[in-house]
TrEMBL record:
One of its GO terms (cellular component) is cytosol. Belongs to the HAD-like hydrolase superfamily. CbbY/CbbZ/Gph/YieH family. NCBIfam families: HAD-SF-IA-v1 (TIGR01549). One of its GO terms (molecular function) is phosphoglycolate phosphatase activity. InterPro entries: HAD-like_hydrolase_sf, HAD-like_sf, HAD-SF_hydro_IA, HAD_2, HAD_sf, PGP-like_dom2. One of its GO terms (biological process) is DNA repair. The keyword Lipid biosynthesis does not apply. It comes from the Bacteria. Pathway: Organic acid metabolism; glycolate biosynthesis; glycolate from 2-phosphoglycolate: step 1/1. Its EC number is 3.1.3.18. This is phosphoglycolate phosphatase. It catalyses: 2-phosphoglycolate + H2O = glycolate + phosphate. It comes from Campylobacter showae CSUNSWCD. It is an enzyme of class 3 (hydrolase).
Amino acid sequence: MKKTILFDLDGTLIDSTPAILDGFNAAFRAHGKSTPNHETVKALVGHPLDVMFAGLGAPTQLVPDYIAAYKARYEQIFLEQTSLLEGAAGALALASEFADVGVVTTKTSKFSIILLEHLGVMGFIKTVIGRDDVVNPKPDPEPINTALDRLGKTSAQDKARAFMVGDTTMDLEAARRAGVVGVGLVCGYGKEASLREYSNLIFKNAFEAVKFIAGR
């Protein structure tokens, strides 16, 4: 029976920080506001856009407009301003040799698939679950359960051999609530101390995590 490895995207497989910051700057400028503190934005990465904008002080009734401005700018620049993290391509290639591989992200699946194809790694991935595929994003278990359902890996045995690899506590909390093994990475936006509150499986990057999973 093959294992299942689900990866988060931002901070786990890709570095899209320049594109994200550019998009937030554009959204706030479009509404005549000062651009947000970049460290504050990065601390919110992994949350859905509506939560991020609310956390940055956008008026509740205008959050959809801020999101629209963000997406308009992001669509223009996300391919050129996003790169694979160190070890990500190797991690996906190795994982695909012994596991069914998926991506579970709070980005939309539309942007995620285009990006993964552009970066040359979509061929390793069997399913992509984005914010637009679920009602409740991470840390709710719905995105992980949706990915497992699409992969046909829903039995108790399947879940015991399923791993969620991510760089934030939202990834690891979702893993815990879905009943799969959470694996944390320190190459992204989360802090190691916070990740260790949810898992003792913490690695430098996705490749190191996959090597561990391969031998488990």
